[in-house]
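Batch manifest, entry 17 of 40.
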Amino acid sequence: MRIINSLDELDLIIKELDDAAKISDDALRALFKTFKFEESKQSYTDPFSAEYHKHQFEIYEKISGKRYKVDNEVSAFDVNQAIKEPFPFSSKSCDTVGNHIIAIGHLIKTLALKPGSKIIEFGAGWGNTTLWLAQMGFEVTAIDIEPRFIDLIKKRAAAINIDIEAINADFQIAHKLDRKWDAIIFFESFHHCADHQGLIPGLLNLLNEGGKIIFAAEPITDDFPIPWGLRLDGESLWAIRNFGWCELGFQESYFRELMNRNNLKIAKYSCPETPWGTIFIAERNNSLNFDLPSPDGTPQSDLSTKNSSSVLKLLRFIKSKLSFLK
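Output type: structure tokens
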């Protein structure tokens, strides 16, 4: 594993990557695994603070050479060629195609939705997941910031005579939509959201009763060195430096805390047959929760009727507050 410390070193390796890509997609992906950037010390410890967020995007600016804006999340490609050979088929790699198909299959199986359910996919990209779900009879809406992806999805849908609503917008449209869906899907896309913390409340407003949010093939793992932040592995560095994309990673413990703060419970489903086989499904936590202050003023969450000791604490708290009635 090569540890690089400068952008000059990174640019030299990117030239190697360009040469590898001319050989094959497999050669390119193999080279991704051979280097990473030297990890800087994390100065800020609160992952929900503005200072923490600012620090992460200072790293982004250093690597990409520009300020982050959502317009950076663009992908230049030939739409007509992509109709015939969308990713992963364009990779011509049995490994990449197989892993991708297995990952989508795992997602569809894990969804467990009733026929005719309404689904919205954020960051639909090439449209593979979108089209397969629409072909199953689901009512699908696709969101993507790249207009070429939206054009591609519409043309691929028309070619097989299926209806898909495709909208050219960034993730923040979640705060503006006035409809509801049974499932919200992110497949390899949530990690591109710079304001991922602010996005979650908007998603909740889009869910029907009993709805679910699916985070599939996202870099969520406790192997990540910090709660959340820019990924500094080879493939992420290549994407940030070459295209200016936001490439975040998340510790699973941090991700669970983020969901908990939004009153969401999550379940994890893994498929070991593909490197893109981890899925987190978030649903509203409808158990009885209280947010009572502890002696030091810190809120105490997750008091449930299933927890007898917590119920006793609750009753004692209520009794103390009503003691003035005696």
